[in-house]
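Homework help board

Subject: predicted structure for assignment chain

Our instructor gave us this sequence and asked us to write out the predicted structure in token form, then describe one feature. I got the tokens but I'm not sure how to describe them. Can anyone check?
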Amino acid sequence: MVIKKYYLWSIGIILLFILILTYKFFNPIQYDIFPKCPFYAITGYKCPGCGSQRAIHYLLNFDLQNAWSNFY
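My token output:
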């Protein structure tokens, strides 16, 4: 039982690491691999989370000015 917990934690940490690397090296503006906001697609209005993917990308690359301007 204890070994299964370690496997689950290990898999979770590896997936988180892959997600962080993906956001660091791929800009959501330039690549279509990132999910689009369903609220914006349906209504045309930006939700509080719109721009957060771009902001995360800029934060991981230490570009604080663009991170602040993209986070709505």
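Reply (TA_rk): Your tokens look well-formed. For the description, you could write something like this. Residues 50 and 72 are 6 Å apart (CA to CA). That's the kind of observation they're looking for.
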